[in-house]
Amino acid sequence: METINQIIEKLDLEANLTLEEIPQIDLYMDQVIQLFEKTFAESKRNDSEKVLTKTMINNYAKGKLIFPIRNKKYSKEHLILISLIYQLKAALSINDIKTTLDGINKKILNNEIDLDSFYNSYLNLAKKNVADFNEDIDKRVVEVKEEIGDGQVDKSHYLEHVLMIASLVHMSSLYRRVAEKLVDEMTIEK
């Protein structure tokens, strides 16, 4: 599994839309899409995958995942919310994302949140998560090699890959399930 570090390098795990990259002027939809495509280009699984489309943005607006748009332009706050949605949709349903962001949308409309500060906190945690992830991956590679070496007659790279995939998916599932339970608690509290 020597290739796992190469795979991780290609993923650009630290890619995030920073506050400095968000223009101080409102953007039209096509400009929003271009900004996200440029920022998250390396995180796509393949070249045909789209980071963000007009349909996605329209669905976020119709589903009230973001507060209403004015004059077909998206503000800095909209871009921050769309960035959060982009990250959350990797593990949560659209309904769970709506529940999660509903309070933030209300706070934005009522001027009750310093969204820049909140988003910077998210970006700081994301950076720490990547560092923790890199350490954890190294540990998992060792554990998979030990498991394959301990009892498998067929010690092929294929079995290492399958075991690594299964382990990563399991960890992902555990994190997703905890996140979903936290969303459920938000629903109950409402």
Shape call: globular
Task: Indicate the low-confidence ranges by residue numbers.
Answer: none
Helix content: 55-70%
Number of helices: 7
Radius of gyration computed on alpha carbons: 19 Å
Main beta sheet = 2 strands, antiparallel
Rounded mean pLDDT is: 92
Number of E-type strands: 2
InterPro entries: DUF1836 (IPR014975)
Protein name: DUF1836 domain-containing protein
Concise structural overview:
The protein is an all-alpha fold. It is built from 7 helices and 2 strands.
Give your account of this protein's structure.
- With 190 residues, this protein is mainly alpha-helical.
- It folds into 2 domains: 16-118; 129-189.
- It contains 7 helices and 2 strands.
- It has a two-stranded antiparallel ribbon.
- Helix 4 (76-88) packs antiparallel against helix 5 (94-109), helix 5 crosses helix 7 and helix 6 (115-151) runs antiparallel to helix 7 (157-189).
- The protein starts with a helix and ends with a helix.
- 14% of the residues are buried.
- The mean pLDDT is 92.
- This is DUF1836 domain-containing protein.
- Pfam families: DUF1836.
- InterPro entries: DUF1836 (IPR014975).
- It comes from Neobacillus paridis.
